[in-house]
Every structure is written in C-alpha cells, then in structure tokens.
Amino acid sequence: MACCEPELDKQAPVAYRNALIAVLAINLVMFGVEAAVGLFSGSRALRADALDFLGDAATYGLTLWALGQSLTWRFRAARIKGFSLLLLGLLVLADSLVSLITGAAPPGVMMSGIGALALVANLTSLMLLVRYRQGDANIRSAWLCTRNDVLANISVIVAGLLVLASGSHWPDVLVAMAIAGLFCHSAVSILRQANAEQRAGQRDGPGPGGDGCGPAR
C-alpha cells in the first residue's frame, strides 16, 4: 500500500469516490424506509437496521471526506467512526432491553419484506465496494459496515419468519441485540486498526508530506 493511501490503482480514487457516493445515497434512502416502517410496526430489529443504515451513511460520508486528507485527520476520522458505531450499538442494545418488558410481536411479513428490500440494497453496495475492501482503517471501515449489513438483513428476514410462525416478539428482540453486537464488534475492530496504524506511523517517522506513514498492512 502506498504511503497514506489505500491500495488502489491509478484510476481507483475517482471510481472509489463514485462508489462511496452511490452507497451513501442507497443507505440514506434505506434509513428513511426502515425507520418509518420500524416505528410503524414496532419492530426493534427494523429500528436497529435503520440505525445501521444511518451509521453506514455517516461512515461513507466520513470516508469520502478523509480521502486525500493528511494521515492525522484520517486517524481522527476512523476514530470518530469507531466511537459512533459503538454508541449506536449501545443505543440499540438499550432499546432491545426495554422491549423485553414492553414489546409486542411486530408483523412478521412486514419485517421479512423490508429485510429483503434492505438485503438487495446492501448486496448492491457490497458489489460496488468489493474491490476496495483492503486498505487503511477508513477504507476497511466502509467495507466492514456493508458486510455486516448483509448479515443483519438476513437475520431480520429470518426473525420476521420466526415471528410469523411463533407469534412471539423474542426473535425480533434477539436479532436487534445481535445487530447491536455487530455494531460494537466493528467499532472495536476499526479503533484497534486505527491505533495500530498510528503507532506504526509514529515509529516510522513522517512521510514526504510531513505526516507519519506506516507500512502497508
């Protein structure tokens, strides 16, 4: 990997920006759809997945901004994304715990239907970003978010079918808690990589532009 830049070919920066803009738009649209349906249906899993789309949109926006920035600001952007994902995970977990007492079974068909729509959106995003899955903490965070979304969407679809079959709200709550776990796991992974890259940069000294640049990972 070139110093301070993702492992991309010469044409990739423009292509990568375009891919990020596309997935940013997809995530904002799906956040609106899932948030509205989640509030209407009372599904904690759909609310959690909606927050996932919102968090991803913020991640893609920060990744776009960080491209071409100094290494110091790239570290800061990665940390902001990591701590934001951790906060979202804790919020989803708190909402899930509340629903253990007050929650009712949401419409299973609606859950699975919206989950399937979200899956199509995230598979499209995954295809757009798959060539850029390797790189620094900022590049990797965008890939991790999209990959986790696909797993979350499949879980929502399965939860909707289980709610439909059982009439219980437990599958909905458990999937929401699992999504919260994905948030937290990704946050820790991003923060660890950002910290490791910063330590490597400080150890190897400043690059040509005056910022410490670590070796390729």
UniProtKB/TrEMBL annotation:
Protein name in the entry: Cation transporter
Keyword Transmembrane: yes
Swiss-Prot/TrEMBL keywords: Membrane, Transmembrane, Transmembrane helix
Membrane topology: Multi-pass membrane protein
Cation efflux protein transmembrane domain location: 20-69, 80-193
Disordered: region residues: 197-217
Localization per record: Membrane
Gene3D superfamilies linked: Cation efflux protein transmembrane domain
